[in-house]
Amino acid sequence: MFSEIDRFVARYIQLSEEELALFHSLLRHRKVRKKNFLLQEGEVCDFEALILKGCIRTYYLDKEGVETILLFAVEEWWVSDITSFSERKPSNLFIETLEDSELLTIDFNDKARLFEKIPAFERMFRLLVQRSLGMLQQRYYSSISQTAEERYLQFLEKYPLVAQRVPQHQIARYIGVSPEFLSKVRSTLFKKH
Amino acid sequence: MFSEIDRFVARYIQLSEEELALFHSLLRHRKVRKKNFLLQEGEVCDFEALILKGCIRTYYLDKEGVETILLFAVEEWWVSDITSFSERKPSNLFIETLEDSELLTIDFNDKARLFEKIPAFERMFRLLVQRSLGMLQQRYYSSISQTAEERYLQFLEKYPLVAQRVPQHQIARYIGVSPEFLSKVRSTLFKKH
DNA sequence: CGCGACGTTGATTTGCCTCAACGATTGTGG
DNA sequence: CCACAATCGTTGAGGCAAATCAACGTCGCG
Fold first, then answer.
1. Are residues A85 and A69 part of one domain?
2. What is the CA radius of gyration of chain B?
């Protein structure tokens, strides 16, 4: 159960056996069926989760009911609403399973305890957040400077596996266009070849 | 010279006198005149800088010459290209002073040394990056779900000081529209009142 | 003084949205 | 296991937000 997360952690920091044991003791194993919410708008997010199995999306929902997808997460990715989690305030996000999923989660108090006992984890989480920031900067730039077609092709290239697993209308919302328009983009792509 | 940064650091972590002295010894004080580049596309970013005085922007530049502004930074803000800095690879960004500016900078090796000697700094930088990520998520969502008018008003509300200090066409690029269109948005806003 | 940076305005075009209608596929309760 | 509903993707018509291009006025500064 912990083999995946141990390999994950080892990429960033080195821990003794006792430290690993302590770490494990702070984690909770959860199974969640497809189409369930880990978090809904208005709730305070009290988990950070590493995905062992499954697929999860986080998205905003505006008053008109339009979803804007912030992230698709699959195996070896973390999901949370860090703003809500770290500032302990209500979230604007929904986090929903797209497939039956298995997670290892840690809550706010246990994460604080973890940092206290094993400061090296500050480093790991700093590096994780740092990488997320870099990726989001790139994505923000794409959303402003590129056309829907370019963003779609880039998505396929970057996340070929995810593209197989999630429905097309959600890919549309991820790249920031309507499902109808993505369908039209695809049909012009086919005509080109 | 260090009073601002000491106050800044104290918001996140507590340091002894010796630790502060060590920290100070790793910083470099720089003055940079208006309209100079701290970083240009293709260079590896070897600094993180706290702004003591002045105003700086970071932006992408596409092949057609269009700028997309990622950040305006003024007093008490940090600037860098963290991706380039931490992965030591060429940047896609430009970082340019908009006013005569004064900075405290730290380079890659000294930051590594800092983390090694005073692990608490991992915490501070984690929290900083975390906050940046939260803000950028919000901004990404705005760029997709709101109109130019809404984003402009939100900018004025959020950064009234910056709005006085930077030219209007750069605010346009920050909120992701053309300078001409922002001008039109403003003129319809005036007509409304 | 003259020139470049800046902001405005108008005409035209375009990328994408909304709405509506329609098949195809999936899945689910009876 | 079937029947019906929901989900999903496609296509077309029409509309709107914002881009592009071009011309012009103003101002601050070297």
1. yes
2. 18
Confidence tier at B191 by pLDDT (50, 70, 90): confident
Question: Among B145, B147, B182, which would you mutate to test the A interface (most chain A Cβ atoms within 10 Å of its Cβ)?
Answer: B145
Smallest CA–C1' separation from A170, nucleotide:
D8
Whether A106 and A156 have beta carbons less than 8 Å apart is answered as: no
Residue A166 CA distance to nucleotide C30 C1' (Å): 30
Distance from CA of A54 to the nearest CA of B (A): 24
Domain shared by B101 and B35, yes or no:
yes
In this structure, the answer to whether residues A165 and A135 fall within a common structural domain is no
Q: Are both A123 and A41 inside the same structural domain?
A: yes
Asked if residues A92 and B88 have their Cβ atoms less than 8 Å apart, the reply is no
Span A115-164, pLDDT tens digits:
999 999 999 999 999 999 999 999 999 999 999 999 999 999 999 999 99
Rounded (10°) angle between helices A179-192 and A148-158: 80
**Could you tell me the two tokens for A69?**
């997808």
Map residue A106 onto helix, strand or coil.
Answer: strand
Print the domain residue range for B156: 146-193
Burial class (CB in 10 A: 0-12, 13-18, 19+), A157: exposed
A124 and A150 inside one domain: no
Inter-chain CB proximity A60 and B119 less than 8 Å: no
Burial class (CB in 10 A: 0-12, 13-18, 19+), B80: buried
Read off the pTM: 0.96
